[in-house]
Write a structure and sequence with these properties.
This protein has 16 helices and no strands. It is flat and about 75 Å long.
Length: 385
Protein backbone atom coordinates (compact mmCIF):
# COMPACT_ATOMS: atom_id res chain seq x y z
CA UNK A 1 0.00 0.00 0.00
CA UNK A 2 1.45 3.35 -1.05
CA UNK A 3 1.94 6.20 1.40
CA UNK A 4 -0.82 8.18 -0.30
CA UNK A 5 -3.20 5.25 0.02
CA UNK A 6 -2.28 4.78 3.69
CA UNK A 7 -2.95 8.46 4.40
CA UNK A 8 -6.33 8.23 2.68
CA UNK A 9 -7.38 5.13 4.61
CA UNK A 10 -6.08 6.67 7.84
CA UNK A 11 -8.14 9.81 7.26
CA UNK A 12 -11.33 7.85 6.56
CA UNK A 13 -10.72 5.68 9.62
CA UNK A 14 -10.44 8.73 11.86
CA UNK A 15 -13.62 10.25 10.41
CA UNK A 16 -15.38 6.93 10.97
CA UNK A 17 -14.15 6.83 14.60
CA UNK A 18 -15.38 10.38 15.20
CA UNK A 19 -18.80 9.51 13.77
CA UNK A 20 -18.97 6.43 15.99
CA UNK A 21 -18.13 8.62 19.01
CA UNK A 22 -20.91 11.02 17.97
CA UNK A 23 -23.32 8.08 17.79
CA UNK A 24 -22.44 7.15 21.38
CA UNK A 25 -23.01 10.76 22.48
CA UNK A 26 -26.47 10.57 20.87
CA UNK A 27 -27.11 7.30 22.74
CA UNK A 28 -26.31 9.00 26.06
CA UNK A 29 -28.68 11.88 25.22
CA UNK A 30 -31.46 9.49 24.25
CA UNK A 31 -31.05 7.55 27.52
CA UNK A 32 -31.45 10.66 29.64
CA UNK A 33 -34.49 11.70 27.59
CA UNK A 34 -36.14 8.31 28.13
CA UNK A 35 -35.89 7.30 24.44
CA UNK A 36 -34.47 3.87 25.23
CA UNK A 37 -35.55 2.05 22.06
CA UNK A 38 -34.05 4.79 19.91
CA UNK A 39 -30.86 4.56 21.99
CA UNK A 40 -30.77 0.79 21.41
CA UNK A 41 -31.05 1.37 17.65
CA UNK A 42 -28.14 3.78 17.72
CA UNK A 43 -26.10 1.26 19.74
CA UNK A 44 -26.61 -1.28 16.94
CA UNK A 45 -25.46 1.35 14.42
CA UNK A 46 -22.34 2.00 16.54
CA UNK A 47 -21.57 -1.72 16.59
CA UNK A 48 -21.85 -1.89 12.79
CA UNK A 49 -19.58 1.16 12.43
CA UNK A 50 -17.00 -0.43 14.69
CA UNK A 51 -17.03 -3.57 12.53
CA UNK A 52 -16.51 -1.51 9.35
CA UNK A 53 -13.66 0.45 10.93
CA UNK A 54 -11.89 -2.68 12.17
CA UNK A 55 -12.38 -5.06 9.26
CA UNK A 56 -13.13 -2.92 6.19
CA UNK A 57 -10.92 0.11 6.77
CA UNK A 58 -8.41 -1.96 8.80
CA UNK A 59 -7.71 0.95 11.12
CA UNK A 60 -5.28 -1.03 13.28
CA UNK A 61 -2.97 -1.59 10.32
CA UNK A 62 -2.71 2.04 9.20
CA UNK A 63 -3.26 4.22 12.27
CA UNK A 64 -0.32 5.79 14.08
CA UNK A 65 0.26 4.34 17.59
CA UNK A 66 -0.69 7.32 19.78
CA UNK A 67 -3.71 8.20 17.65
CA UNK A 68 -4.82 4.58 17.86
CA UNK A 69 -4.37 4.58 21.62
CA UNK A 70 -6.42 7.70 22.26
CA UNK A 71 -9.16 6.75 19.82
CA UNK A 72 -9.48 3.47 21.71
CA UNK A 73 -9.53 5.34 25.02
CA UNK A 74 -12.31 7.66 23.81
CA UNK A 75 -14.30 4.71 22.49
CA UNK A 76 -13.89 2.80 25.75
CA UNK A 77 -14.74 5.84 27.88
CA UNK A 78 -17.94 6.45 25.90
CA UNK A 79 -18.91 2.78 26.28
CA UNK A 80 -18.46 3.14 30.03
CA UNK A 81 -20.53 6.35 30.13
CA UNK A 82 -23.33 4.63 28.19
CA UNK A 83 -23.34 1.66 30.57
CA UNK A 84 -23.18 3.93 33.62
CA UNK A 85 -26.03 6.05 32.21
CA UNK A 86 -28.17 2.93 31.87
CA UNK A 87 -27.42 2.05 35.49
CA UNK A 88 -28.16 5.54 36.85
CA UNK A 89 -31.31 5.84 34.72
CA UNK A 90 -32.63 2.55 36.15
CA UNK A 91 -31.65 3.63 39.65
CA UNK A 92 -33.55 6.92 39.39
CA UNK A 93 -36.54 5.40 37.66
CA UNK A 94 -37.06 2.33 39.84
CA UNK A 95 -35.18 3.46 42.97
CA UNK A 96 -33.24 0.23 42.65
CA UNK A 97 -30.90 -1.12 40.02
CA UNK A 98 -29.51 -4.53 39.29
CA UNK A 99 -26.33 -5.18 41.26
CA UNK A 100 -24.85 -7.10 38.35
CA UNK A 101 -25.10 -3.99 36.15
CA UNK A 102 -23.16 -1.99 38.77
CA UNK A 103 -20.44 -4.65 38.91
CA UNK A 104 -20.28 -4.63 35.10
CA UNK A 105 -19.76 -0.84 35.09
CA UNK A 106 -16.92 -1.14 37.60
CA UNK A 107 -15.21 -3.90 35.59
CA UNK A 108 -15.62 -1.93 32.37
CA UNK A 109 -13.91 1.09 33.95
CA UNK A 110 -11.16 -1.11 35.42
CA UNK A 111 -10.55 -2.68 32.00
CA UNK A 112 -10.33 0.75 30.37
CA UNK A 113 -7.82 2.01 32.94
CA UNK A 114 -5.70 -1.16 32.79
CA UNK A 115 -5.53 -1.21 28.99
CA UNK A 116 -4.68 2.50 28.87
CA UNK A 117 -1.85 2.18 31.38
CA UNK A 118 -0.43 -0.91 29.71
CA UNK A 119 -0.61 0.73 26.26
CA UNK A 120 1.12 3.88 27.48
CA UNK A 121 3.84 1.75 29.02
CA UNK A 122 4.34 -0.10 25.74
CA UNK A 123 4.58 3.09 23.71
CA UNK A 124 7.00 4.73 26.15
CA UNK A 125 9.26 1.70 25.80
CA UNK A 126 9.30 2.28 22.05
CA UNK A 127 7.45 -0.94 21.28
CA UNK A 128 4.53 -1.57 18.96
CA UNK A 129 1.02 -1.87 20.33
CA UNK A 130 -0.44 -5.33 19.77
CA UNK A 131 -3.50 -5.64 17.59
CA UNK A 132 -6.75 -6.48 19.27
CA UNK A 133 -6.89 -10.16 20.09
CA UNK A 134 -9.87 -12.39 19.52
CA UNK A 135 -10.91 -12.11 23.18
CA UNK A 136 -10.85 -8.31 23.00
CA UNK A 137 -12.93 -8.21 19.83
CA UNK A 138 -15.49 -10.62 21.26
CA UNK A 139 -15.57 -8.56 24.45
CA UNK A 140 -16.33 -5.33 22.60
CA UNK A 141 -19.14 -7.02 20.66
CA UNK A 142 -20.55 -8.55 23.84
CA UNK A 143 -20.50 -5.19 25.68
CA UNK A 144 -22.36 -3.49 22.83
CA UNK A 145 -24.95 -6.28 22.66
CA UNK A 146 -25.37 -6.05 26.45
CA UNK A 147 -26.07 -2.32 26.17
CA UNK A 148 -28.80 -2.97 23.60
CA UNK A 149 -30.36 -5.75 25.70
CA UNK A 150 -30.55 -3.50 28.79
CA UNK A 151 -31.94 -0.60 26.77
CA UNK A 152 -34.66 -2.84 25.32
CA UNK A 153 -35.35 -4.18 28.85
CA UNK A 154 -35.07 -7.81 27.76
CA UNK A 155 -35.00 -9.14 31.32
CA UNK A 156 -34.64 -12.80 30.30
CA UNK A 157 -31.32 -12.04 28.60
CA UNK A 158 -29.85 -9.22 30.68
CA UNK A 159 -28.04 -11.35 33.25
CA UNK A 160 -26.63 -13.86 30.80
CA UNK A 161 -25.36 -11.07 28.50
CA UNK A 162 -23.77 -9.19 31.38
CA UNK A 163 -22.08 -12.29 32.81
CA UNK A 164 -20.75 -13.16 29.35
CA UNK A 165 -19.38 -9.62 28.97
CA UNK A 166 -17.76 -9.77 32.41
CA UNK A 167 -16.07 -13.09 31.64
CA UNK A 168 -14.78 -11.74 28.31
CA UNK A 169 -13.56 -8.54 30.01
CA UNK A 170 -11.60 -10.64 32.48
CA UNK A 171 -10.20 -12.87 29.72
CA UNK A 172 -9.15 -9.97 27.46
CA UNK A 173 -7.57 -8.04 30.32
CA UNK A 174 -5.68 -11.11 31.54
CA UNK A 175 -4.45 -11.81 27.99
CA UNK A 176 -3.25 -8.23 27.58
CA UNK A 177 -1.53 -8.26 30.97
CA UNK A 178 0.21 -11.51 30.13
CA UNK A 179 1.40 -10.09 26.79
CA UNK A 180 2.69 -6.95 28.50
CA UNK A 181 4.55 -8.58 31.38
CA UNK A 182 6.19 -11.50 29.65
CA UNK A 183 9.67 -10.88 28.29
CA UNK A 184 9.88 -12.33 24.78
CA UNK A 185 13.67 -12.49 25.01
CA UNK A 186 13.54 -14.90 27.92
CA UNK A 187 10.12 -16.53 27.90
CA UNK A 188 8.27 -18.56 25.36
CA UNK A 189 4.58 -17.77 24.90
CA UNK A 190 2.18 -20.25 26.45
CA UNK A 191 1.08 -22.98 24.08
CA UNK A 192 -2.58 -23.31 23.16
CA UNK A 193 -2.80 -26.40 25.37
CA UNK A 194 -1.41 -24.52 28.38
CA UNK A 195 -3.76 -21.61 27.70
CA UNK A 196 -6.71 -24.01 27.81
CA UNK A 197 -5.41 -25.43 31.08
CA UNK A 198 -4.96 -21.94 32.55
CA UNK A 199 -8.50 -21.01 31.55
CA UNK A 200 -9.88 -23.48 34.11
CA UNK A 201 -7.89 -21.81 36.89
CA UNK A 202 -8.93 -18.31 35.80
CA UNK A 203 -12.63 -19.18 35.43
CA UNK A 204 -12.97 -21.14 38.68
CA UNK A 205 -13.59 -18.02 40.86
CA UNK A 206 -16.28 -16.98 38.39
CA UNK A 207 -17.98 -20.34 38.86
CA UNK A 208 -18.04 -19.70 42.60
CA UNK A 209 -19.75 -16.36 42.01
CA UNK A 210 -22.25 -17.81 39.51
CA UNK A 211 -23.13 -20.70 41.84
CA UNK A 212 -23.92 -18.32 44.73
CA UNK A 213 -25.21 -15.44 42.60
CA UNK A 214 -28.40 -15.05 44.66
CA UNK A 215 -26.39 -15.00 47.95
CA UNK A 216 -28.41 -18.02 49.12
CA UNK A 217 -26.83 -21.32 50.16
CA UNK A 218 -29.92 -23.12 48.86
CA UNK A 219 -28.93 -23.70 45.23
CA UNK A 220 -32.49 -24.64 44.28
CA UNK A 221 -33.44 -20.97 44.71
CA UNK A 222 -30.86 -19.77 42.22
CA UNK A 223 -31.96 -18.25 38.92
CA UNK A 224 -32.49 -20.72 36.07
CA UNK A 225 -30.12 -18.66 33.93
CA UNK A 226 -27.27 -19.07 36.43
CA UNK A 227 -28.02 -22.76 36.97
CA UNK A 228 -27.63 -23.29 33.23
CA UNK A 229 -24.50 -21.10 33.20
CA UNK A 230 -22.97 -23.20 36.03
CA UNK A 231 -23.59 -26.35 34.01
CA UNK A 232 -22.16 -24.80 30.84
CA UNK A 233 -19.01 -23.69 32.71
CA UNK A 234 -18.45 -27.21 34.06
CA UNK A 235 -18.92 -28.67 30.57
CA UNK A 236 -16.34 -26.12 29.41
CA UNK A 237 -13.94 -27.28 32.13
CA UNK A 238 -14.35 -30.87 30.96
CA UNK A 239 -13.90 -29.95 27.31
CA UNK A 240 -10.68 -27.99 27.96
CA UNK A 241 -9.39 -30.84 30.13
CA UNK A 242 -9.97 -33.24 27.22
CA UNK A 243 -8.50 -30.93 24.59
CA UNK A 244 -5.36 -29.63 26.32
CA UNK A 245 -3.63 -33.02 26.42
CA UNK A 246 -4.77 -33.95 22.91
CA UNK A 247 -3.53 -30.66 21.46
CA UNK A 248 -0.23 -30.80 23.34
CA UNK A 249 0.55 -34.23 21.89
CA UNK A 250 -0.77 -33.45 18.40
CA UNK A 251 1.20 -30.20 18.13
CA UNK A 252 4.35 -31.50 19.80
CA UNK A 253 4.00 -29.03 22.67
CA UNK A 254 4.12 -31.41 25.64
CA UNK A 255 5.95 -29.55 28.41
CA UNK A 256 6.91 -30.03 32.03
CA UNK A 257 4.74 -27.03 32.90
CA UNK A 258 1.74 -28.66 31.25
CA UNK A 259 2.31 -31.95 33.06
CA UNK A 260 2.10 -30.19 36.43
CA UNK A 261 -0.43 -27.52 35.48
CA UNK A 262 -3.07 -29.91 34.11
CA UNK A 263 -3.68 -31.94 37.31
CA UNK A 264 -3.35 -28.78 39.41
CA UNK A 265 -6.08 -26.99 37.43
CA UNK A 266 -8.34 -30.06 37.69
CA UNK A 267 -7.99 -30.09 41.45
CA UNK A 268 -8.56 -26.33 41.79
CA UNK A 269 -11.77 -26.43 39.75
CA UNK A 270 -13.17 -29.70 41.15
CA UNK A 271 -12.43 -28.93 44.80
CA UNK A 272 -14.05 -25.51 44.42
CA UNK A 273 -17.18 -27.16 43.03
CA UNK A 274 -17.19 -29.76 45.83
CA UNK A 275 -16.99 -27.00 48.44
CA UNK A 276 -20.01 -25.38 46.78
CA UNK A 277 -21.77 -28.74 47.10
CA UNK A 278 -21.00 -28.79 50.84
CA UNK A 279 -22.56 -25.36 51.29
CA UNK A 280 -25.75 -26.29 49.48
CA UNK A 281 -26.12 -29.75 51.06
CA UNK A 282 -25.25 -31.86 48.02
CA UNK A 283 -22.21 -33.40 49.74
CA UNK A 284 -21.31 -34.05 53.40
CA UNK A 285 -18.14 -32.51 54.73
CA UNK A 286 -16.43 -35.84 55.39
CA UNK A 287 -16.64 -36.91 51.72
CA UNK A 288 -15.03 -33.74 50.45
CA UNK A 289 -12.43 -33.96 53.24
CA UNK A 290 -11.50 -37.50 52.11
CA UNK A 291 -11.27 -36.35 48.49
CA UNK A 292 -9.07 -33.41 49.53
CA UNK A 293 -6.83 -35.73 51.59
CA UNK A 294 -6.36 -38.03 48.58
CA UNK A 295 -5.61 -35.15 46.20
CA UNK A 296 -3.15 -33.44 48.52
CA UNK A 297 -1.40 -36.75 49.29
CA UNK A 298 -0.90 -37.56 45.61
CA UNK A 299 0.35 -34.03 44.95
CA UNK A 300 2.82 -34.40 47.82
CA UNK A 301 4.00 -37.67 46.26
CA UNK A 302 4.38 -35.94 42.90
CA UNK A 303 6.43 -33.17 44.55
CA UNK A 304 8.71 -35.74 46.20
CA UNK A 305 9.23 -37.39 42.82
CA UNK A 306 10.10 -34.04 41.25
CA UNK A 307 12.68 -33.40 43.96
CA UNK A 308 14.46 -36.52 42.75
CA UNK A 309 14.24 -35.51 39.12
CA UNK A 310 11.40 -37.93 38.42
CA UNK A 311 8.06 -37.24 36.77
CA UNK A 312 5.23 -39.34 38.13
CA UNK A 313 3.05 -40.22 35.12
CA UNK A 314 -0.73 -40.14 35.28
CA UNK A 315 -2.29 -43.48 36.15
CA UNK A 316 -5.29 -44.90 34.35
CA UNK A 317 -7.14 -44.94 37.66
CA UNK A 318 -6.46 -41.20 37.99
CA UNK A 319 -7.93 -40.56 34.55
CA UNK A 320 -11.02 -42.61 35.43
CA UNK A 321 -11.30 -40.70 38.69
CA UNK A 322 -11.16 -37.34 36.93
CA UNK A 323 -13.70 -38.45 34.33
CA UNK A 324 -16.07 -39.78 37.00
CA UNK A 325 -15.77 -36.59 39.05
CA UNK A 326 -16.62 -34.55 35.97
CA UNK A 327 -19.61 -36.70 35.02
CA UNK A 328 -20.85 -36.71 38.61
CA UNK A 329 -20.64 -32.92 38.86
CA UNK A 330 -22.48 -32.56 35.54
CA UNK A 331 -25.16 -35.01 36.72
CA UNK A 332 -25.76 -33.10 39.96
CA UNK A 333 -25.84 -29.67 38.31
CA UNK A 334 -28.11 -30.95 35.53
CA UNK A 335 -30.44 -32.51 38.09
CA UNK A 336 -30.66 -29.20 39.93
CA UNK A 337 -32.21 -27.62 36.81
CA UNK A 338 -35.95 -28.13 37.24
CA UNK A 339 -36.91 -28.55 33.53
CA UNK A 340 -34.26 -31.27 33.08
CA UNK A 341 -35.27 -33.07 36.29
CA UNK A 342 -38.98 -32.97 35.40
CA UNK A 343 -38.26 -34.20 31.87
CA UNK A 344 -36.60 -37.46 33.01
CA UNK A 345 -39.20 -39.94 34.33
CA UNK A 346 -38.69 -40.84 37.99
CA UNK A 347 -35.83 -38.36 38.51
CA UNK A 348 -37.89 -36.20 40.88
CA UNK A 349 -38.44 -39.20 43.17
CA UNK A 350 -34.75 -40.06 43.52
CA UNK A 351 -33.44 -36.48 43.47
CA UNK A 352 -33.35 -36.05 47.29
CA UNK A 353 -30.83 -38.93 47.46
CA UNK A 354 -29.10 -38.46 44.11
CA UNK A 355 -26.39 -35.84 44.90
CA UNK A 356 -25.01 -37.55 48.02
CA UNK A 357 -25.16 -40.98 46.34
CA UNK A 358 -23.14 -39.70 43.39
CA UNK A 359 -20.68 -38.00 45.76
CA UNK A 360 -20.32 -41.28 47.67
CA UNK A 361 -19.36 -43.11 44.48
CA UNK A 362 -16.93 -40.34 43.55
CA UNK A 363 -15.34 -40.52 47.01
CA UNK A 364 -14.89 -44.30 46.80
CA UNK A 365 -13.30 -44.20 43.34
CA UNK A 366 -11.07 -41.29 44.39
CA UNK A 367 -9.75 -43.26 47.39
CA UNK A 368 -9.12 -46.36 45.28
CA UNK A 369 -7.25 -44.22 42.75
CA UNK A 370 -5.11 -42.75 45.54
CA UNK A 371 -4.18 -46.22 46.79
CA UNK A 372 -3.24 -47.20 43.23
CA UNK A 373 -0.91 -44.20 42.95
CA UNK A 374 0.88 -45.04 46.20
CA UNK A 375 1.26 -48.71 45.34
CA UNK A 376 2.67 -47.85 41.91
CA UNK A 377 5.07 -45.30 43.44
CA UNK A 378 6.71 -47.49 46.10
CA UNK A 379 10.09 -46.89 44.46
CA UNK A 380 9.72 -43.17 45.12
CA UNK A 381 8.66 -43.65 48.75
CA UNK A 382 11.64 -45.92 49.41
CA UNK A 383 13.95 -42.98 48.73
CA UNK A 384 12.45 -41.09 51.68
CA UNK A 385 11.38 -43.81 54.11
Amino acid sequence: MTEEKVSDVRFRSRIWSILRAAIFVCVICFIWNGMLKTAAGFVVIAMAMGWVNLYQLRSEEVEMPYYRLWLNVIDGALSFVVMASIFVHDLLKEESAEKLLAVGCVLLLARLIAHTLFSLGVLREGKQLPRKRRWSKLCNISITVTMAVYLLNLEDYQQICMVTSMLLMGASTAAYAYWYYRDPAHRKPLSIASQLTMSRIVLTPFFLWVFFYDNDLDYSNNSLVFKVLSLVMVLGFMLTDFLDGKLARAMGEVSTLGKYLDPFSDKISNMTIFMCFIATGYAPVWMVAVIYFRESSVETLRTLAASEGLIMPARRSGKWKTALQGMGIVGILAGAIDPIRHFIPGFDAIWPYFPQTIMGIITLVTVVSGVDYFVASKHILKKFV
